[in-house]
Amino acid sequence: MIRIDEMTRGRFGNKILHYNSLVQLADSMGTEASCVPWEGVHIFDDLENHKVSTEHKPLIEWKDILSNNIPTDIDHLMGPYCIHNIFWKVTKKDPRNFFKVNSEYKKNFSNDKVHVGIHLRGADILGADGNQGREIHSPKYYMDAIELVESEFENTYYHICTDDMNFESFIETITYLGQKNYPFELGSPNHFVDFSTLSECDIIIASSSTFAVAAGFSGKEDKKIIHSMEWIQKNLDHTPWHPYEDPENIREWQLSFDNFWVELYNGGNEFYHVWKFV
User: Fold this and answer.
1) CATH topology of domain 114-277
2) Which long-range contacts (CB under 8 A, 24 or more apart) does 133-138 make?
3) How sure is the predictor about 268, in pLDDT bands with cuts at 50, 70 and 90?
4) How far apart are alpha carbons 205 and 4 in whole angstroms?
5) The pTM is what?
6) Domain spans of the chain?
């Protein structure tokens, strides 16, 4: 058995990635998966329940998984940082097989429009988790991505999903959509509803957030996903996360997350890949 006793402290997208790592690794090792309850689990059908055990289990971390340093004859606990840094390594089956949004939250869009989800991160990317603005996507990125969509598709309809409607990129994006008379609607204050919306769109104009990434490999198959090339370049260049020098062990951990975006740029996999970089 592989079990998560401590879910990642990250937000909803990271929790989905952590759970994906658990199920994927358990499947490849031919063993059971078990997980503590976590925020958002209620929007999916039939995810694994926690199997209580008092036995001590060795902890496996992201470096163990990337280096194939996992004994297969014993049970394990999975560490809280096994998220998108190991996504390409462990994801061998379609996450849609187990991330099935239930009837309470699932969106069912009409086929007479091309539904385009836009995810904008809010002011969280100005604080510690966003590394003082490193992950900001400019209004120009969103406008250029919208024009790319309009050049390729007709009868579009935009769904704007964000948790911060005071953020500059959000304000300028909806202003632009209004000036162009492109039909749109604002998302829900409930981020679980927004996740379902993004997961069922035909196209996602994504942010740097794992929330958008998780929506990309959930729900509707073969979505066309757009990412910011400026953001990708920061990861290709491995630009420091902070204006000060991080300790070597922290920098190694940061590079493992940069490499998620590097591998995405190199093609991703059959379950998550980019249509266009803008």
Assistant:
1) Rossmann fold (3.40.50)
2) 134/234, 134/239, 134/241, 135/207, 135/208, 135/209, 135/231, 136/169, 137/169, 137/207, 137/208, 137/228, 137/230, 137/231, 138/169, 138/230
3) very high
4) 32
5) 0.94
6) 2-97, 114-277
